[in-house]
User: What shape does this take?
Amino acid sequence: MTDLVKVLHVEDDPEILEISGMALTLVGGLDIVQVDRGEKALDVVADFNPQLVLSDMQMPGLTGAETIAAIRKMPQFQNIPCVFMTAKLLDGGESIMTHPQDIGLIPKPFDPMTLADELRALWNSQVQQAA
Assistant: This one.
């Protein structure tokens, strides 16, 4: 099984970006790149080559779903797994998760001490299903 190491994080709220950055790197030991807009994610994704994208849903400009759809148009990222973070779960999240590689939803507020573990659990579940 391949371990989760590299995560691209897309979040427009600077406080959440800072807290989750510490949670994923200092607590979780992950290698991350963080951007505050979907458009910036498109600029950095190819150079960073993440294994997974963690994205907010509601952002100015491209939404989380639009950002992931644009990333998945790149041949090397057609099947990249994505976990969405959102404060607004209207229907339990089913309408957000429209692609087979949309592997999870993390509600806001989240626990910084367990965020990386939650991502790893979702990643491991996805990797096992693909095997």
User: Anything to note?
Assistant: The CA atoms of residues 7 and 59 lie 19 Å apart. The helical segments are 14-27, 38-48, 64-72, 115-130. The chain has a mean pLDDT of 91. The chain has one domain: 6-123.
